[in-house]
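Quick bug: Bis(5'-adenosyl)-triphosphatase ENPP4 output formatted oddly.
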Amino acid sequence: MKLLVILLFSGLMTGCRGNSSYSLPPKLLLVSFDGFRADYLQNYEFPHLQNFIKEGVLVEHVKNVFITKTFPNHYSIVTGLYEESHGIVANSMYDAVTKKHFSDSNDKDPFWWNEAVPIWVTNQLQENRSSAAAMWPGTDVLIHNTTPSYFMNYSMSVSFEERVNNITTWLSNSNPPVTFATLYWEEPDASGHKYGPEDKENMHRVLKEIDDLIGYLVQKLKMLGLWENLNVIITSDHGMTQCSENRWINLDLCIDRSNYSLIDLSPVAAVLPKINITEVYEKLKNCSPHMNVYLKKDIPNRYYYQHNDRIQPIILVADEGWTIVLNKSSSKLGDHGYDNSLPSMHPFLAAHGPAFHKGYKYSTINIVDIYPMMCHILGLKPHPNNGTFSHTKCLLVDQWCINLPEAIGIVIGALLALTTLTCLIIIMQNRLSVPHPFSRLQLQEDDDDPLIG
Ligand SMILES: [Zn+2]
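Here's what came back:
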């Protein structure tokens, strides 16, 4: 009992020390490498990233949201919402009421983003705090009339080093201090599309470059004295799967183009009928055995992808590795966007810093769980969201959690202790009891052993 009290007390003390050791207010840098499929970590070497993980935490799979595309998932990370709730439901969208179009090169209208409040806005509403961003989707848009205090207009030609230099300068020298920062990089997504994830040689080269960039980032943070007190999350929006020209679904073979507008193409096509919806649906329904065709009302609940006007009346979902085309070639050897229950669509998450445990591995969280965790680290009150804070408790030093193997260990340990205790009590009782002169005789009477009988 004494031991238990001491253990509990020392645990509490450690918890308190954990809290006070990070300088106030806590700071967080959120980094995304686009299209970093979870199992790249097992299949390729990442010396710098593995060092980062060794001193921090790793979540091997992050279950992202449907559709598994870049803009939607990046917005889910920073809002904790499913796509139907935050409104960025695809990389290409059309709003039938306002007749507005959205694409990754035409994304600056706040109209598209204002259905949710990203964490960089919430962070800046706190007294004496600012946010900074190097090209995370949405950070160069006036969302709820606010941009991060420091941000870069999106341009894919700006190098990773320049993005890191800006972010680290802002994290070092700003007043009010930058407490939340984001950093985005287009690889390995671009190469994943170009070569396909099964092209080991090219992917090896690209992933080594990414690991070197992580090395550069960590070195820079150390050099500027930011490393020890900064919480850093490295994650991604989605994975990547191999495609092939032998797996094309040609819509032109099933329906005339004059019958519909195609808002988004592959692997989840968004179809806006120009004629009767049922007629278009009937033509598409049996177009390919490798494609599911849904009327909006029949989209499976598990996708959380229905209740938003920007989701079109019919969506087509290709099977993994299949590409929806319009009677023309597609040069993509890799793609994403598919069913979010496919492991190939999942990214990973690694984190390091005073808020996180050291050397801890965890199997799965949801991408929407990242937001409440980040709010907790920064001491922000989260907006209503679809994430679950308790899913990430095991990653954090100031939270108490038991994972399944530990729980099983504790139960088995308790049972063993109880059994041992019971045995000991029985043995002691036998030893202490006064010897009974007739007991041995009685035992022999009951014994069936023929040698004795
Ligand atoms: Zn992509």
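Actually, after a second look the formatting is fine. The first strand starts at residue 27 and ends at 33. Closing.
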